[in-house]
Amino acid sequence: MIRKGIEGGSYKPLTPEDISRINDTVLSTIEEIGCQVNSDTALDAFKRVGASIDSKKRRVRLPREKVLELISKAPSEVTLCGRDEKYDIHLGGARVYTGTGGTALYIYEPTTGERRQATLTDLKDISRLVDKLDNIHLLLLPTYPNELPVEQVDVNRFFAGLDNTSKHIMGGVYTIDGMCEVMRMAEMVAGSPEALRQRPIISIITCVISPFIIDEKYGDMIVTAAESGLPVVCPSEPLCGATSPVTLAGNLVVQTVDSLMGVILAQAVNPGTPAIFGSVATSTDLRDYKYIAGSVEMGLLNAAGAQMAQFYKLPYYATGGMTDSKTLDAQSGYESAITNLLCALSGSNFIHDSAGLMEFAMTVCYEKYVIDNEILGMVMRAVEGIKVNDETIAYDLMKEIGPGGNFVTAKHTRRFMRKEHYQPGLSDRNSREKWDEKGSHATWEVAAKKVKSILESPASSLPDEIRKRVLSEIKSIVK
For the chain, how long is the longest CA-to-CA vector? Predict the structure, then answer.
């Protein structure tokens, strides 16, 4: 049973009073401190909506009324479409979906315990793998093809996704030219520019820099993406004690301000642009200022971000599911599970990085995608909660069975046993004797068999005619 788009929101780390106070501080920050904007096109867009601008410092400030007005122009729900409609996801409210993420440079090989540089072939294979993992609902392009020059990276990354999965493709870009090439390719795949806007099969990530900076490159990218009308994600990544106050409340204010400034810019450029509020907020290891990916505080911060997104009525891109472990061990499992669970129960619309990533988001592992797919199935079952009605309470059945009876052969048991209880595809629930008979395999070894099976099966490739056209018209794609 595939569970996606289930309403979360049962976990609320912030009280209504907390949300009100965070919001008030956010609006004061935008009005009084402001945001440094290093992009001329972004600065022009803010001027057009009446922002107060200190030209010397490139500092943009907006009164709280204008901030709320511009936020209200952003759609409260955004549909991210797959090439196959069954993979469409509808972000908004407290509905929960999961996906991959990162721009990892390395691949971890559990058979050797070593890592190697990621290649374009890895990205294609990971796309094929994710296509068959039901609890991962969206492909956010997760690796960087180290062998390619940066000028070829954008279009090749997106093509690797589009040609190997029918799920929605989300990704960051590195150049404006690359972004334009990606959009042209997506228009070919969709059928036309209009068809792509009606059913966006790709979305673009454009980051805001914490604290309070829209840099030149990303500012230009937000403007370009907004002009195109495609969905744009505006995450920020404040780090406690480094690029935000060390306290979680202070970090949440910085994250909210930064992401809202991206959403506001998109609306200033093109009112109604489908813009997604986003968080990659997390802790810092203050011993050496490392980014921490597996802390429980990351889960708390991103869960609180879901409440702020719901307050502003914006779709939300959260971060969870990573680990700082360098191998497939207990740490890898519990860190991924805890942060995913906190994000999902809070009603985060799209949990990015929820599968595959390890080692401070620098590395991915094929087997970990399969393991995390299992974790996510359990997480989504937790989000679904306990349904209480006449059928599930089963009082009439209890009355019929009576004291000392059993429910094994009851029709009610057969009807509910699979949909009421998560059925694992990876976890071993055999006795030790049966486990020994089957080879005494560790979880990652079972996952490795599934990876092999999926990669040996047919891929969800583009139709031949479309594929040939894309390859003939976009010469920078590596064949």
Answer: 82
Residue pair 88/80 in contact by the 8 Å Cβ criterion:
yes
pLDDT (0 to 100) of residue 289 = 87
pLDDT at 18: 98
Per the prediction, the chain carries an average pLDDT of 97
Sign for the pseudo-dihedral over CA of 293, 441, 138, 344: negative
Task: State pLDDT tens for residues 63-94.
Answer: 999 999 999 999 999 999 999 999 999 999 99
Quote the DSSP letter at residue 175.
-
Residue in 215, 248, 254, 216 with CA at minimum distance from that of residue 236: 254
User: How much is the pLDDT for 56?
Assistant: 94
Please report, for residues 16, 92, 265, 279, 435, the alpha-carbon distance to residue 252 in angstroms, rounded to integers and kept in the order given. Answer: 15, 20, 20, 9, 46
For 364, phi then psi, to 5°, come to -120, 165
Contact (Cβ atoms closer than 8 angstroms) between residue 221 and residue 173: yes
Closest CA to 67 of 32, 21, 18, 16: 32
Could you please report the per-residue DSSP string of 275-317? EEEEE--B-EETTTTEE-SS-HHHHHHHHHHHHHHHHHT--EE
Low-confidence ranges of the chain (pLDDT < 50): none
Compute the Cα dihedral for 319, 231, 236, 165 and give only its sign. Answer: positive
Beta bridge partners of 213: 36, 209
| 99, 138 contact by CB (below 8 A) | yes
Q: How far is CA 453 from CA 129, 370, 449, in A?
A: 10, 12, 6
Structure tokens at 8: 């979360």
CA dist., res. 186 & res. 199, Å (int): 11
Domains of the chain: 6-15+72-384 (3.20.20.480), 390-420 (no CATH)
